[in-house]
Write a structure and sequence with these properties.
Shape: globular
Strand content: under 5%
């Protein structure tokens, strides 16, 4: 199985965050542990986008692959997703990436991102889990 890793953001840019917050991510991320400092902002944003897409799919069944209004699938709203990402960046800047810390004392998802995504209908469904029974059952 080959893993495809995106290198370019799909939903937000450095400029979007600058317009939203007045903070330049290139300056904010200076001194961080990136081996390729010329690409650090895009790397940061792509990792955030991928994490958020995976989180929304895991928790709520929200997927970009199924942007329908069926009862079984949460609707994906790209504009709301982008706004939620901007809030998530604020949260990460303030709290660090709690999803990769050994001991997490807070929520991994920014409350403001959750609010935007919930209002857009992206956090309103819990997908149906299919349980595989093991041989021992």
């Amino acid at each position: 199985m080959a893993i495809t890793i995106r290198t370019e953001p799909m939903y937000i840019t450095k400029q979007n965050y600058l317009d939203f917050s007045g903070i330049d991510l290139a300056l904010e991320l200076q001194g961080a542990n990136y081996d390729n400092p010329s690409d650090m902002v895009d790397t940061f944003i792509v990792r955030l986008e991928e994490w958020a897409l995976s989180y929304l799919f895991m928790k709520f069944g929200t997927s970009t692959t199924y942007p329908t209004d069926d009862d079984d699938v949460a609707i994906f709203d790209a504009d709301a997703f982008s706004l939620g990402l901007l809030h998530q960046i604020d949260y990460l800047r303030r709290n660090g990436d709690l999803s990769i810390q050994a001991v997490s004392q807070g929520k991994v998802l920014a409350p403001n991102a959750y609010m935007v995504w919930k209002n857009a209908g992206m956090c309103n469904l819990a997908h149906k889990r299919t349980e595989r029974l093991g041989y021992w059952v």
